[in-house]
Amino acid sequence: MSGANQNSDTFEAAADRTEAVAHFGNQRRGFIGQLQHILHVNSSFVPMIVLVAAILIFGLLLGSKFFSPFALTLILQQVQIVGIVAAAQSLVILTAGIDLSVGAIMVFSSVIMGQFTFRYGIPAPVSVLCGLGCGILIGALNGWLVSRVKLPPFIVTLGMWQIVLATNFLYSANETIRSQDIEANAPFLQFFGAKFNVGGAVFTVGVVFMLVLVAVLSYALRHTAWGRHVYAVGDDPEAAELSGVNVHRTLMSVYMLSGLICAFAGWALIGRIGSVSPTSGQLANIESITAVVIGGISLFGGRGSILGSLFGALIVGVFTLGLRLLGADAQWTFLLIGLLIIAAVAVDQWIRKVSA
Amino acid sequence: MMSDNVPVVEGRGIVKRYGHVTAIDRSDFELRKGEILAVIGDNGAGKSSIVKAICGATIPDEGEILIEGKRVNFTSPMDARNMGIEIVYQTLAMSPALSITDNMFMGREIRKQGFMGRYLRQLDRPAMEKFAREKLTELGLMTVQSINQAVETLSGGQRQGVAVARAAAFATKFIIMDEPTAALGVKESRRVLELIQDVRSRGIPIILISHNMPHVFEVADRIHIHRLGKRLCVIDPKDYTMSDAVAFMTGAKEPPKQSD
Question: Chain centroid to CA B136: how far?
């Protein structure tokens, strides 16, 4: 059946209200085409396979040393900070932006939570709220500069990174609040570090928070109008605006939410390391971008799922722990991660080639 | 309901200046019920300016716009959209990575009833998909495999079809189409022209901006010829040839005296 005939046939069929859902000959895509299609529909598929494969390989090589509830949940604990920050990063990258200030917002928020409690004697929960509010505020400033002043996100957040980090050092006077002091006077600050045991598996509140956060964001991105708008803005902001999406409001909400999530990461950071240190978490921005990219989210925006970036963070965690247990030089981890990043972006470019 | 001679849209003495440049120079405009009005004019004649003024994309400096006899002051295309005026942009304004359904409902999504919709703001996907499928089927466009297919997997003609279906689904007053056949091949153009006539037969009037004379002469009921920032004349395509229209448009020939 030729294309022309088929077209007019289906037109007639549809006109007769038979609701013929006709096909036009792209059923046969072959294996490669099929794979491309699956990846196009579900971008977190590749990172999931890589994650499962990595766990299996390290499990075979290391046996129960690696393949135990304890070791596997240790990975979760080790990636919780990056996992939370990567969730924030994912949102921004989905709008075709990038947030280099995530690490700085995280550290500064944790410093505010600590210093407000210890320097001014404010009750810990109120200090935590102040820290979270500060995260939202910095996020709002980023969002406003990107959306209203129309500056490139890379530049805005590069500047904000320096500004916030400098403010962080100036304000804290480079002073660390010791873990013992926090434990004695304001244990609420370490809330995210609280551990509980489920049959050998050790979870912390931070780990649970990370998993819940990813689940909630995943739902919001997929099943709410806001989520669809985030994708549309990342895909083509002009088209989104013309079809009635409030691009400014969407961008503001994304950057503010990103700031808030980073502030939560700051709280989780106190739980993880025990102390409040203005020098901690310096690599969070690069690590979060790594997780997002490995997780199959396109740096050009509008494509990918937040679940992917969780997988991305876990892949890095599995490699790090697995190679350490194997006694390999830590540089091997970086080498492999580097390869994964380039492979992930290559796959993304390939997926983007699909068209009729 | 309403007397037949009230135009769907009427522009009276519209003026728009950009610095020293007068893009619209006391121009009139009229779209009647149930018609396809083509707007033609040379590049820079201001045909897109006048249409932008009608849909709220630019705010005219002088003059008035009446929709079904009532004066309106649009400040953005959203105002026009809220009144039931839909625009099919030349760029189509669709998000390629999102599905047909997502694109059709972009900016006016349907939420679920009850708790899930009110508090968790969950989209009512089944309802949206059903609506999208109905609208595409009505226009004979269900040649797409799935309503959840990403728009970027569609051909140019199919994309145009989805954009037209979206406009037709939500328009209650009229539709503006900007160069709907410009990016299409012969066969696909044909299909889109049929589609435009289909939409008209549903009683929705259309403003068609196009450079393609054969297409204009094929579907238009009246042709608004724009020249030097104003309406030069409105002709009936049955009374004139394409070369007449081009001659009026370029100033090579005097326009006919307007009787109506």
Answer: 18
